[in-house]
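Re: [help] complex structure
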Amino acid sequence: MQQIINFLIRNKTTLLYLLLLSISLILTVQSHSYHRSTFFNSANWVSGNIFQTSSNISNYFGLREENDLLKEQNRELQLQLYNLTPNDSLELDTTGLRYKILAGRVIKNSYGNQKNYLTINLGSKQGVVQDMGVITGKGILGIVEASSANYAVVQSILNTNSNINAKIKNTSYFGSLTWDGSDFTTVQLEDIPRLVTLMIGDTIVTGAMSSIFPENIPIGVIKKFDLNASQSFYQIDVGLFNDMTNIRNVYLIENLDRAEILELQTSIEDGQK
Amino acid sequence: MGRNNVFIHIVRFILLVLVQVLVFNQLNFLGFINPMVYILFLFWYPIKENRMLFIGMGFVLGLVIDLFSDTLALHSAASVTIAYLRPAMMRFVFGVNYEFQSFRLSNTTLVQQFTFLALLILVHHIVFYSLEIFSLSNLLLILKKVVFNVLGSIVMCTLLSSLFSPEKE
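Output below.
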């Protein structure tokens, strides 16, 4: 017993180091899994407020570009509005809505890591919940991973954990959108079968299988495609519409039917067991 | 360690964390180079202090940076490692005489200080990027990121440490 205690005292620094190292390794491995705790991320009170302050200051430098972007978006919406053939009656109540949309601002962005997260200035007080979709005027951005009272952390599509259902525009060939971590302008689309004819420049949009995003939100265009190792599926490089390095205003989409869809899917999966 | 010294360390800690998360984490030079200047805290920290406390500080420093940059526990693992290995590195760089009472960082040659700093940064980045990418099939990517980020960090840390040398008399 004496010897064990002596051993512990003699090697106390090494043991402390090993303890702290294993704590951090455990935390690292845990963060590889899908859901994370709400406190241990940049949406917590201290870092949220610091990023908010810094973004309040730096926001002024991008106001002009941001204005141009919003004007362009408005123009597109007006184009659609005036070219719409009006029905004889429009529904104005909100009971039939499938999607709810919130507007927010990015207060922290990153794109140089393997697992990139953004922090936005909306939280559970404004109705942000886990698994809401996040888009900009140009295309998709990511999925809400955790939210605190006033802030939320968004898992960017530039995250090696990210996996989003996507398809080729105007067809129903769908695959999953992932990121290999090498280039922040390009993401990868997998599992498109070989029989599909592809062209460089084809547009990729979100698919209908997702219970997070509505269908047909733009993602990017095909830059390059190859057959994968098994020669039966394509490995497609998709150049993003969004400039991931310069993102300020975002929209959060909540699918109001999501709970129902998930319930239905789990009930079937449970029945098969 | 006097009360004044504790105060200086706390201020230095907070300032380095803020500079790291608000300036250098947003830098993204060439798309992926983010110098890690908070290593300077471990470089400047007095040599004669309690080792246990120092390792603990290294861990807390890394954890705070992790919380801000959503890289939970990558920075902690890397900085606790260099905090633990620091005495061994000092023995390697400065020889045995760093254990004497009169030893001060400012008394050593610039080359020695630079080697020490570069060694800290190199070990830190190797641990950090290996854990971040975490697959041997991406060895080339790890190497690329380590090499360029080590260069970036060394440049920024050398500049900062020559601007704000703590032991100037």
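Chain A has five helices and twelve strands.
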